[in-house]
Structures are given as structure tokens and as C-alpha cells.
Amino acid sequence: MTMLTLAPEYIRAIAPYQPGKPVAELAREMGLDPATIVKLASNENPLGMGPKARAAVEKEIADLARYPDGNGFELKAKIAEKYQVASEQIVLGNGSNDVLELIAHAFLQAGDTAVYAEYAFAVYPLATQAMGATGICVKALDYGHDLDAMRAAILPSTKIVWIANPNNPTGTLARPGDLIEFLELCPSHVLVVLDEAYTEFLPAAKRSDSIAWLKRFPNLIVVRTFSKAFGLAGLRVGFALASPEIIDMLNRVRQAFNVNSLAQAAATAALDDEEFLQASVRVNNQGMQQITDAFRQLGISFIESAGNFVTFHCGDARMLNQFMLERGVIVRPLAGYGMPNSLRVSIGLPAENARFIEVLQQAMND
Ligand SMILES: *Cc1c(COP(=O)(O)O)cnc(C)c1O
Question: Which residues are annotated as modified residue N6-(pyridoxal phosphate)lysine in the UniProt record (predicted)?
């Protein structure tokens, strides 16, 4: 007997999440100066954190010997005000990843199934499998969610449908009307998790009014994060909005102090920093233009993206990835998503995008 056999079979079967390579790790491996490395691998905000969030963190440092507010009173009050929901409709997480796991924890057990799309965010199969439940992976339609097929895939054992909108890593976007139709036709005892990690980047016309839908659909859970447009990935904070009954269940499996005090203070301040949010969107739009223009010029095909990243096709992605790493550019391989011929690049600052494009050009001339 080895220690491995102590873990349940469904845990041993999990393939761990592969995060983007940290700058320090690449610097060590390649003997590069970290200051010259461009990391466009984890969809982080290239502007860093906003000034209001930074000021809030600096102020909060004085109280770090204390436990954080386990109920996140101020952050929930701010979220409630901003999104017009009751505090009882909010659960906070150590990143939205934590929230996704709380949902799986509270509602899934062995024998249950959960539906997600091919190429959808990798955390959905992981969170499902970690509970001993079974994932139902529905073939993608043009790299996006095939909502009709996902509805058809729902079984009597299905407890959750996971939807990322926009989806990571493909950047595909479902139309609001199609999502409403999905919710109308979905059995009311199936939870629909709408993960909107990139919603702030969308133009108003393309954004789903998903929070308003909560009134109509008590089985809907809307998940948001501070990691992307708000620029707080390192602090780890996200939240879910849902009916008070669902939130009550999520709170039962939540660690009492799952969101640290720096994260709570920063997120509360970030929600008031409209200027920073707009700057983030502007930088993203310009960078998306810069990178996709280069793809077109170089004849590289890519998936039109509504997020702060874009997936492009490149033949042997492993080789191109290695070529880029050796030159200090970190992008995201997608072999784990079943896309061995594609890479995902996050939108950076103009100079970072330019460096990525330069190395891509070199690779094509090589
Ligand atoms: C980045 C991302 C998240 C999670 O981010 P956290 O940092 O855990 O808040 C969730 N869903 C999708 C689709 C993402 O791309």
C-alpha cells in the first residue's frame, strides 16, 4: 500500500490545474533578468492595482494582527449598493475560484452530475470531480458554449450547469437572449452558475443584465471576481450573487476567514474607482487591437475574444511556447484544454504587446 491509495479514486484521477508560469520561476530557469520578462499568461491587469485599492491596502496594514471580518460587512455593503442586491444575496470568496468550489462543495456529491462545455474554464471539471461527482462535457460550438446541447445534456442527476461568459480560454461570448432562453428552459432544480470574470471588459450592448435575472430565476448564481478588470489577482477576492437560500448553503461550507482583510479593503475601494476601471478597459481595447492587427498581418488565425486575452492557432504550440519562454515572453499553453495547437496571450501594456509580437514574428521567420 502506498499513501496514494488512501485518497479516494476520484481524487487520484484529478489532473492538477496548471497555472501560468510565474516570472521568478522563468527567470531562475533561463537565467534571465526578471525585469525583462513579459508575462502575458494569466489574464492579469497590466496596469496593476488601482490607486484607491492601493491606498486602502496601505491603511489596512496597521491592523494585520487582527482576524479579518468573517462576514465581510463593508465589502458586502458596497457590493449590495453597487449591484442593487441584498447583503443576504452575497457570498465572498478567496478569489472567485473559492466561490466555485463552495458551490461544488455545497451541492455536489457522488452520483450527481454537472454539465460544462468543452474548452470551458478548467476549474469546473476540477471542482466537480473533487466532490466525487461526474462531469458531463458538452462539445463546443465554434469554440463557445452550445447552450441547446448543454440543456439537452442535463440528466435527472444533474445539479449544476457551469457557464463561463465570456469563456476563458476561448474568449467566446453568449448572447444575453440565448442565456435567458437557456434559463427559461432549464429545469428549475438545476443550479446555473454564470461565471462572469470578464464582464467589466464588455461594451454595454453585449453585457448580460444577469444580476437583474436573479429575481426571475432562483436557481441562478452569478459569479464575479476582482482579479481581472479590478486588478487584484494577488489578493484573491471574488463573490457570488444568488438567492438567500443558496447563499446560506454556501456560507455553511465557507471557511470563517476565507477573505483576508487586505483583500476586503482593496475590493471595497476598487468598486469606487470608476476611473481605474475605465482605464483598464481602454488599455485592453487598444491592446486587443494591437495584437489582433498583428495576427492578421502575420496570417495567424485566432478566436475573436470578448475578454482580456486572445487564443491563437499556431501548429506546434509546444515549440512556439518554448521559443517564447527562451526570449522571456510567457504565454499560456492550452494542451490541458485539448487545444495542443493553440496558445492564449493576455493583453498587456503597449510595450509588452509589442515584445510579444516581435518574438512571434521572429518565431515565424525562424
Ligand atoms: C480568472 C477566472 C476566474 C477566477 O479568478 P479568481 O482569481 O479565482 O477570482 C474565474 N472564472 C474564469 C472564467 C476566469 O477566467
Answer: 228
